[in-house]
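Read as chain and fold; for instance:
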Amino acid sequence: MFEIVQTADGSHSVYSTHIKEQYHSSHGAIQESMHVFIHAGLHTKLNQQKDIHILEIGFGTGLNALLTLLESSTHNCEIFYTSFEKFPIPVAVYQQLNYGTLIQDLNAENIYPLIYSSPWNIEHRIDSHFILKKMKLDFHEIDFKNEFDIIYFDAFSPTSQPELWTAGIFQLMYDSLKPNGILVSYCAKGIVKRTLKSVGFKVEALAGPKGKREMIRAIKI
């Protein structure tokens, strides 16, 4: 079951009654996604290249995909966006989320439905800057080699789903990235940093979004 909740910046999140955790920070869904995934992740690569391949671990509400698409138009770059989600939120829940009306971009309200309603397991061009492929698969089924510039690691927390924060999963992430590719995550627990380092990542602790002291950016070296 899924319940819609409002976060401190006015944007919605979704609470999973199965996992017993909500998809975003209570301090603000949009501000967290912008800080962690757009500013610390996407903008790092936008300074270097105009074609960017992104792997997202946890499609969730589709907020990260929406914000990334809007940035791709602003910066005139092309984004190839692959996202994994084994248990998608029902369309009826997506339709109630307020990102399209809340984000200060005239295109957001029209684009958001195109993202959450796009077909699963099929590559789909949303607009001239953004190609989306949503994969309805388990994270353990990832099998990419040197394909991605950025990974948005947006799984549920290690407390709720510790099996998603293991050396085995992070090895899959490391192998999926191109050399000098980056992984960004809201979680900065010591055990997560150590596990990332154990598979070869160089780990940076950055200032976190509102409500969190730190976040992680890990680089494939």
